[in-house]
Write a structure and sequence with these properties.
alpha+beta; Alpha-Beta Plaits; 19 strands
């Protein structure tokens, strides 16, 4: 089959294309969305993906966290199927691989359930902007609020702060309510800090009191008569953006979200490695976390909210001091159907937890069958004469004195045996005499030092 491959760069997207007689496959990798978790690298059956300098990228370098070897890529779609941040998209003849039920893919979802009002708390805390809340109607649909004419100026409105949970429904309905926003943090997800009422704008119509789920609003004044008044809302969750972090569920006072996390597991901070951590100067773990679950505690050290973590492992890869450990215990995915390639997908998914990847043999090498090895018969070693061994070792110790000399080696290899024996014996004798002479000299020196030491000691005693 004739295959044509091509790679193009369009902004932050690296587009890889494979064209055959039967299909046009496109792998779209958005490196700005990628956080360098490396799951795709570990999954790839042909090692076509390689991690880039993720530590430098996490601290500001503009480069792709994953490098793609186009020649090695077989366009299987595993990277797109199990990317937790959806940085990849894979299509075949314009059909998304995520829509093909013959291929499994990662599950990470947030779905409103029957408890949902809805309210406004989940929308601003979603780290990927996947949630949109729509309400209808607005207060303006029933006529303008008072502006200059002070109708109902004797009316009163009060919000009970003990009951109000800052859900924001009233503020979405009527412009007379003002929600003071604050930046949600992992330790305090509520995105608002106070609800105020602009009484110069409020006309005390009383419609807001009927939509408050906590009955926190009381209004005194002439009510606005509206037939069949109902304040409706709807929540839209973009599946392409949702990472299943669960922040929407954690901030919701009514447990109105059903969450499917992509991975289950644990995240740990290594205390001894944290001594090297500079949370204010580095922020690598903050920068790569898709769930925004990192913060600096009161003790000045980094902290992580495990309930919001999706265990993608990007923070561990980005940490230059190896202070973070992420262990995955389970993967949420669609059904693996029994197909010719199902085992390869099972192995890939299993490796997300075990970190051990078995890959198919693509070398084309055929190995011969293994030959049964017959054990060799045990050879009985005869007993050796101890006196003979002692004599041999004695003679060898004499030869050791000269065996490494080039001239002796030359005689050993080139001369006739009688001549070689005679020459080597002569050199052995000379070597022994030299060794004995050196030993005598060493003994005399040692005796002299001993005598001097004795004389010096005697002098000290006098």
């Amino acid at each position: 089959m004739d295959l044509q491959k091509d790679m193009d760069v369009q902004g932050s997207h690296i587009i890889c294309t494979q064209i055959s007689d039967e299909s046009v496959k496109v792998l779209d990798y958005d490196y700005k969305t990628c956080n360098g978790c490396g799951i795709c690298v570990d999954l790839c059956p042909t090692k076509a993906l390689q991690l880039g300098p993720v530590i430098e990228i996490a601290t500001g370098l503009d480069a792709p966290p994953v490098l793609i070897d186009l020649e090695a890529c077989v366009f299987c779609g595993m990277c797109a199927a199990f990317c937790p941040v959806k940085a990849y998209k894979m299509t075949a003849n314009d059909e998304d691989y995520q829509d093909k039920d013959v291929y499994p893919h990662l599950l990470s979802t947030a779905k409103p359930n029957e408890k949902c009002l809805p309210c406004c708390l989940c929308e601003p805390v979603c780290p990927t902007g996947a949630i949109t809340v729509i309400f209808m109607p607005k207060r303006d649909d029933f006529g303008p609020l008072r502006e200059e004419e002070k109708e109902n100026e004797n009316g009163k409105i009060k919000v009970d702060p003990e009951k109000c949970n800052l859900c924001g429904k009233c503020a979405r309905f009527c412009d007379a309510f003002i929600l003071l926003e604050k930046e949600p943090s992992p330790e305090d997800l509520v995105p608002f800090e106070q609800l105020l009422v602009d009484e110069d704008l409020c006309d005390y119509c009383g419609l807001c009191a009927s939509i408050c789920p906590e009955e926190a609003i009381t209004v005194e004044g002439t009510p606005l008569e509206v037939d069949d008044f109902e304040f409706l809302g709807d929540i839209e969750v973009e599946e392409d953006k949702c990472i299943g972090c669960g922040r929407c569920l954690l901030v919701c006072p009514y447990e109105a979200m059903d969450i499917t996390k992509p991975f289950e597991g644990d995240i740990k901070l290594v205390a001894k490695q944290l001594l090297q951590c500079d949370p204010l100067g580095c922020h690598a773990c903050f920068n790569v976390c898709p769930a925004d679950c990192w913060f600096v505690g009161e003790d000045g050290k980094i902290k992580v909210e495990k309930d919001q973590c999706i265990f993608c492992g990007a923070c561990a890869k980005a940490c230059h001091c190896h202070a973070i450990e992420v262990d995955r215990t389970d993967v949420s995915h669609t059904l693996i159907k029994e197909t010719p390639w199902s085992q390869e997908w099972k192995d890939a998914i299993s490796s997300i937890v075990t970190n051990e990847r078995t890959r198919p043999d693509l070398s084309g090498v055929v190995l011969p069958p293994e030959i049964e090895k017959v054990p060799l018969q045990k050879i009985e070693v005869p007993e050796r004469d101890a006196r003979l061994l002692e004599a041999i070792n004695e003679r060898l110790s004499q030869v050791d004195l000269v065996i490494n000399k080039p001239r002796v080696r030359f005689m050993w290899e080139r001369d006739d045996i009688p001549k070689a024996v005679e020459g080597i014996a002569e050199r052995v004798q000379k070597a022994q005499e030299k060794k004995a002479k050196e030993k005598t000299t060493e003994d005399k020196i040692a005796q002299g030092k001993t005598a001097e030491a004795a004389k010096a000691k005697a002098g000290e005693q006098k």
